[in-house]
Design brief:
Elements: E1 6-10, H1 14-25, E2 29-35, E3 44-45, E4 48-52, H2 53-56, E5 67-70, H3 75-87, E6 91-92, E7 95-96, E8 101-102, E9 107-108, E10 113-114, E11 119-120, E12 125-126, E13 131-132, E14 137-138, E15 143-144, E16 149-150, E17 155-156, E18 161-162, E19 167-168, E20 173-174, E21 179-180, E22 185-186, E23 191-192, E24 200-203, E25 208-212
Parallel strand pairs: 1-2, 1-5, 2-4, 5-6, 7-10, 8-11, 9-12, 10-13, 11-14, 12-15, 13-16, 14-17, 15-18, 16-19, 17-20, 18-21, 19-22, 20-23, 22-24
Antiparallel strand pairs: 3-4, 24-25
């Protein structure tokens, strides 16, 4: 990515504030902040005027703003918006805080946000449009699927796999060699000691399934 190029941020909530801060810390130029909520149009976030996404999204590329990042916390919505902007010809960029510690053999997909205090160890693969939130750790040889959210203070042992659109809640711990499916919700503070299938909600110490998607 050419650091002189302007980037747009899609989303104007609390998560977007952190993403904007990371981009600024990296010395990148934010050309526009968009949101679907037209009630936010004209208001400001972090010193940037919020623009209505439906009105301006297709025109940014003609203003030489060709790269963007989705700053939306909801995993499914973030994934959908990422597909939308790519279909319109925009490129997704990743945002990695300078105070994150990333091993040299880690691979990070486009659209992913890595926040301050995150540690990711060797040979881990991070998918696209992932959120690695403040202070989480991901040990060696993990595989994190697209549009996953690893919440603040969460710790994943080595060789853990997390399926697409799953959220691992604040302060949860996942033992090494565990497999967590797609569209899973792991509660805050949970301890995952066994594999979890797709579409379940698991809470507690040790984590137990309390709900299965129908």
């Amino acid at each position: 990515m050419n650091e002189k190029e302007k980037i747009f941020v899609y989303g104007a909530g609390g998560h977007a504030k952190v993403v904007i801060d990371i981009l600024e810390c990296r010395g990148l130029t934010i050309g526009a902040v968009l949101d679907d909520d037209e009630r936010l149009a004209g208001k400001e976030i972090m010193g940037y005027k919020i623009l209505p996404a439906t009105d301006v999204l297709q025109s940014l590329i003609h203003q030489n703003i060709r790269q963007g990042i989705i700053a939306i916390g909801d995993n499914q919505v973030r994934e959908n918006k990422a597909k939308l902007i790519q279909s319109l010809g925009y490129e997704l960029v990743a945002a990695v805080h300078p105070q994150a510690v990333i091993a040299k053999t880690v691979r990070i997909g486009v659209g992913t946000v890595v926040m301050a205090g995150v540690v990711v160890n060797s040979d881990t693969v991070i998918g696209e449009n992932v959120i690695l939130n403040t202070g989480c750790t991901v040990d060696h040889d993990c595989v994190i699927g697209n549009a996953v959210h690893i919440s603040p203070g969460t710790h994943l042992g080595g060789n853990v796999a997390v399926g697409e659109r799953t959220q691992v809640g604040i302060g949860a711990a996942v033992l090494p060699n565990i497999r967590i499916g797609c569209d899973v919700r792991v509660g805050g503070g949970a301890a995952v000691i066994r594999d979890l299938p797709d579409g379940v909600t698991a809470v507690g110490v040790p984590a137990r399934v309390i709900r299965t998607r129908v």
